[in-house]
């Protein structure tokens, strides 16, 4: 896809997009700083692109609690402005959002029409981004995903490997549930959606996509230790026993039937993908 413009270059998903479509144009912070939405618009308008993906975001969940303005500009104002520019030049736009737009009540997987009610600043700003994009018009898709991991960048797998080497026991929350999602699966899903949107200019909307099967952070940690052959024991704890600046949803499970029905995209098995990521990291 030579006419693809991607906001983001260094993140987990952007790195996997670059592997899949190296011929696309990737904009790092040096070239397109999302803190400056007007600059992002100017770059898009001058780019002559055929399609746009936004893989950049303010993803520091706890830090966002003390930097709400910065998080808002990057996660809401910039994607809204980018969507407006994409609509103005008539190219499809795919944006990535999060399970943290939900409050995590109940146990049933959330579908795309479920009521949003973010618990923290990160989720609130991501939701504002979704709403801004929808209001901007044009052809857009928002892919909500969760618990992203890959060999590149910071993520829960990397944290667990580091702590697992240092400690005999780790306490990890067992009452937050969701689907760990490999970044390469998200990149592939974005590209499939862009192709489908280019072929059918009526396609778009909000879609859920996460790895299967659902687990807890403790379950995820236990599988990481087992596959990495680390002897570190994972002790189940409650959210209350692991205080953090940002509240996180207890139920992050995503119902992924719509993306399967409309785009033929299946949930990846995160355990198999974890195996490949660990091999890539050299574990
Ligand atoms: N990580 C996760 O667990 C989840 C992520 N998501 C969403 O998926 C998408 C991709 O996330 P992921 O790949 O994990 O992101 P990462 O946390 O790996 O990377 C974030 C990326 O955004 C860039 N970025 C941050 N601020 C700016 C800015 N002001 N201007 C330009 N670029 C900026 C970073 O650039 P730099 O290297 O310069 O800082 C980096 O490339 C995001 O929309 C995120 O909200 C959804 C669910 C879970
Ligand atoms: C390091 C650690 C974390 N935890 C808990 C804290 C938290 O509830 C959970 C995950 O912690 P993290 O801070 O690594 O993950 P977090 O930054 O909350 O991850 C989120 O990132 C954003 C960008 C998203 O969009 C979400 O889908 C989700 O992936 O694990 C423990 O219980 N024990 C530990 O030793």
TrEMBL record:
Entries under SUPFAM superfamilies matching the protein: NAD(P)-binding Rossmann-fold domains (SSF51735)
Signal peptide: none
Cofactor: Mg(2+)
EC assignment: 1.1.1.133
Pfam families in the cross-refs: RmlD_sub_bind (PF04321)
UniProt pathway annotation: Carbohydrate biosynthesis; dTDP-L-rhamnose biosynthesis
Cofactor note: Binds 1 Mg(2+) ion per monomer.
Function: Catalyzes the reduction of dTDP-6-deoxy-L-lyxo-4-hexulose to yield dTDP-L-rhamnose.
Protein name, entry field: dTDP-4-dehydrorhamnose reductase
Organism: Paracoccus alkanivorans
Gene it is expressed from: rfbD
């Amino acid at each position: 896809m030579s006419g693809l413009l991607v906001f983001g270059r260094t993140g987990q998903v952007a790195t996997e997009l670059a592997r899949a479509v190296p011929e696309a144009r990737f904009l790092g912070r040096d070239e397109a700083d999302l803190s400056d939405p007007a600059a992002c618009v100017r770059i898009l308008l001058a780019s002559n692109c055929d399609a746009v993906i936004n893989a950049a975001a303010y993803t520091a969940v706890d830090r966002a609690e003390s930097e709400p303005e910065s998080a808002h500009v990057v996660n809401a104002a910039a994607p809204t402005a980018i969507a407006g520019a994409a609509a103005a030049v008539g190219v499809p736009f795919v944006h990535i959002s999060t399970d943290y737009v939900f409050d995590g009540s109940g146990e049933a997987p959330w579908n795309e029409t479920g009521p949003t009610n973010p618990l923290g600043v990160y989720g609130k700003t991501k939701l504002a981004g979704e709403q801004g994009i929808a209001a901007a018009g044009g052809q857009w898709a928002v892919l909500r995903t969760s618990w992203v991991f890959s060999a590149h960048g910071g993520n829960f797998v990397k944290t667990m490997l580091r702590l697992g080497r240092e400690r005999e026991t780790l306490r990890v929350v067992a009452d937050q549930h969701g689907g760990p999602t490999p970044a390469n699966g998200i990149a592939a899903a974005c590209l499939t959606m862009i192709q489908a949107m280019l072929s059918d200019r009526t396609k778009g909307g909000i879609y859920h996509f996460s790895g299967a099967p659902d687990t807890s952070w403790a379950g995820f940690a236990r599988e990481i230790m087992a596959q990495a052959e680390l002897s570190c024991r994972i002790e189940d704890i409650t959210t209350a026993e692991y205080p953090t600046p940002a509240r996180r949803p207890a139920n992050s499970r995503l119902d992924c039937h719509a993306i399967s029905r409309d785009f033929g995209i299946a949930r990846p098995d995160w355990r198999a993908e974890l195996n490949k990521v660990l091999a890539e990291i050299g574990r």
